[in-house]
UniProtKB/TrEMBL annotation:
Protein name: Alpha/beta hydrolase
Domain Alpha/beta hydrolase fold-3: start-end pairs: 70-271
Gene3D superfamilies named in the record: alpha/beta hydrolase
Key word Membrane present: no
Keyword annotations: Hydrolase
Top-rank taxon, per record: Bacteria
GO molecular function, one term: triacylglycerol lipase activity
């Protein structure tokens, strides 16, 4: 059954009109139209708000008690996507981990290039803390570019002298905007949705004139010392596979507790396809377990 699921998902992704390297305005509209055709479960509750002056969308499960908060950063190569459009994946994390998810509407490039997104991420974290949420009750999370942003935010939070969150969960993270990983070419034929060429265009939109090797732009080149436990999940059919494997190796070299889970034969951000792909459900169950563990074991 799972092989049939993988083939069907691959075919679906290859048929989509999205072009990561295409006109940003057009891709935003196409992505929004696509995501709006996917209904949320009836018990998912969303509420707009703000943290630290940054717009956010709180995502939870109606009637469920929540312990802990996931501060979530959506993907979209720093140029497309929106907090509310990520509510499907966010709600799966909320349901499975027993937490509330707060998805951050961080500023997008090219209108707001680096460091705007990082500043918004840190402001949202600071806003959550100022509302009385202890750092030990917060997990940073994100997919694709949002995974990179979660890591950059953790580094910036450390530099600002704030207490670290309990943990970090990233799915298919984009953490090397120089695209120096071998998988950018070796996985090109099997990745149905992402191209190195498209990412390169979006990388320059985001970074502007800044150095792409800056740790807050490409966290894989950064210092992970003192960061909290990290879970990295990635598919075997991704041009960003090496981003994930090198990220895990770098974190481990800096004595961070890190777990890397590579799922063979699945595409970029495969965890977004829970209910369609058995591997997605399994990965989200693992992620929820990680989130619960770090929230339950972080010292007070």
């Amino acid at each position: 059954m799972t092989q049939q699921q993988r083939i069907a998902l691959d075919e679906m992704l290859r048929s989509l009109p999205l072009d990561l390297g295409g006109d940003v305005a057009e891709q935003r509209e196409l992505f929004a139209q696509m995501m709006e055709t996917i209904p949320l479960a009836e018990d998912v509750v969303t509420e707009r708000g703000e943290l630290g002056g940054v717009p956010v969308v709180a995502v939870g499960i109606d009637g469920a008690s929540a312990r802990g908060t996931i501060l979530y950063f959506h993907g979209g190569a720093y140029t497309i996507g929106a907090a509310e459009l990520s509510a499907g994946l966010a709600s799966e994390l909320a349901r499975r981990s027993g937490t509330q998810v707060v998805s951050v509407e961080y500023a997008l490039a090219p209108e707001s290039p680096y460091p705007a997104a990082v500043e918004d991420a840190v402001a949202a974290y600071r806003g959550l803390r100022e509302r009385g949420v202890p750092a030990r009750d917060i997990v940073l999370a994100g997919e694709s570019a949002g995974g990179g942003l979660a890591l950059a935010a953790a580094m910036a939070i450390r530099s600002a002298g704030m207490d670290a969150p309990a943990g970090i969960y990233v799915a298919s993270p984009w953490v090397d905007l120089t695209l120096s990983g071998r998988s950018a070419t070796t996985k090109a034929a099997v990745d149905p949705s992402v191209t190195a060429e498209g990412l390169a265009r979006r990388a320059r939109d985001y970074a502007g004139e800044a150095d792409l090797r800056d740790a807050l732009i490409s966290p894989v080149f950064g210092d992970f010392s003192g960061l909290p436990p990290l879970l990295v999940q990635v598919g075997g059919n991704e041009v960003l596979l090496d981003d994930a494997t090198r990220l895990a190796a770098r974190a481990a070299a800096h004595q961070v507790s890190v777990r890397l889970e590579v799922t063979p034969g699945v595409p970029h951000v495969f965890v977004a396809f829970a209910g369609m792909l058995d591997e997605a459900d399994a990965a989200l169950t693992h992620a929820a377990g990680f989130i619960r563990t770090v929230l339950d074991t972080r010292p007070g």
